[in-house]
Amino acid sequence: MMLSPINMMNFCLLFITTLFMMISSSWLGVWVMMEFNMFSFIPLMLMSSMYCEEEGVVKYFITQIIASMLLLWSYIMMMVKLEMNMFKFFMLLALLMKIGSFPCYMWYPNVMKAISWFNCLILSTLQKIGPCLLLLIYFDFNVYMMIIISLMNVIVGGGFGLFQIDLRSLLAYSSISHMGWMMASYSVSYKLVSVIYFMFYLLLSLPIFLMLLTMGIYLLPNLLYTNKDMLINMISVFFMMLSLSGLPPLTGFFPKLLTLLFISKYSITFSFMLVLFSIFSMYMYLSILFSLLFFYFKQYFFKGLLNYKLSMSITISMLMMPLLMI
């Protein structure tokens, strides 16, 4: 994708502000960098030729402005030493709105569905770093509230993801589910585990977005009507999605296992509910994968057109990562 000089400057500013977020020593500095980050991202959203891009930009801008106003209001409440519970409530609400988490998640799938894969990649990775830093490192929120929010994220992400045919919406709901897992360990005071989980989410989601960006596919039905040369790419995408969903023994299972090991020390019931509600996400990806494999195997396997060795090499490489970690 070719970028104009102005968009290249905005893209560089996006990375610079993200870097300053990570090294900032105060939450106010992170907030300032988040605003610069947002205004450098909006021109990148507008560079696409997609007809519904403008609608996504408007929804994104309005949501982020409301969240920024809530953050500023909570900062004022903290400075004048008003009720601390109200300050933390507005702060939490603003951060949840910025990352597209329950109960302020509706804008996130709608915006993802309206923008290009390139912008989906930025929105799901770089744009989440600042709010997640504030959420995970700088503040402590009510434990029971965070447990409820984390469970609802997993339920919403898995439940609504079952009914999506747009891959961007599907990955948006998958992201909501992962935010629930990340908040789960945070809710029981294991912040380092939350940071590790977030890093794994970024690393696992990045190749999926890049692969789909390269193939230019936006809808699930289109996966069944591509030529046989793209079969390996399709299978690779779905195995990466299965890994992202946390299916053992793929790489994405490791951060979920780590989270469960720590949460089980706090509550077995909480751990069980997380696993139970995550079945929705796994069922969604498995059903898609089986449909894809059945369709292609019926057409190409018996004709000898399926590259068996390449398929096996991809599968083995994806299974080796968690084994090396063990």
TrEMBL record:
Listed transmembrane segments: 12-34, 57-77, 89-108, 143-163, 170-189, 195-219, 231-250, 270-296, 308-325
Q: How does it sit in the membrane?
A: Multi-pass membrane protein
Return the EC number: 7.1.1.2
Offer a single GO CC term for the protein.
mitochondrial inner membrane
Picking any one GO biological process from the record gives: mitochondrial electron transport, NADH to ubiquinone
Q: Where in the cell is it found?
A: Mitochondrion inner membrane
In its UniProt entry, the species of origin is given as: Haemadipsa tianmushana
Top EC class for this record: translocase
Location, primary (coarse class): mitochondrion
Under catalytic activity, the entry for this protein gives: a ubiquinone + NADH + 5 H(+)(in) = a ubiquinol + NAD(+) + 4 H(+)(out)
Q: Name one GO molecular function term.
A: NADH dehydrogenase (ubiquinone) activity
Keyword list (alphabetical) reads: Electron transport, Membrane, Mitochondrion, Mitochondrion inner membrane, NAD, Respiratory chain, Translocase, Transmembrane, Transmembrane helix, Transport, Ubiquinone
Q: What does this protein do?
A: Core subunit of the mitochondrial membrane respiratory chain NADH dehydrogenase (Complex I) which catalyzes electron transfer from NADH through the respiratory chain, using ubiquinone as an electron acceptor. Essential for the catalytic activity and assembly of complex I.
Please list the residue ranges annotated as the NADH:quinone oxidoreductase/Mrp antiporter transmembrane domain. Answer: 24-278
Provide the protein name. NADH-ubiquinone oxidoreductase chain 2
Q: To which protein family does this belong?
A: Belongs to the complex I subunit 2 family.
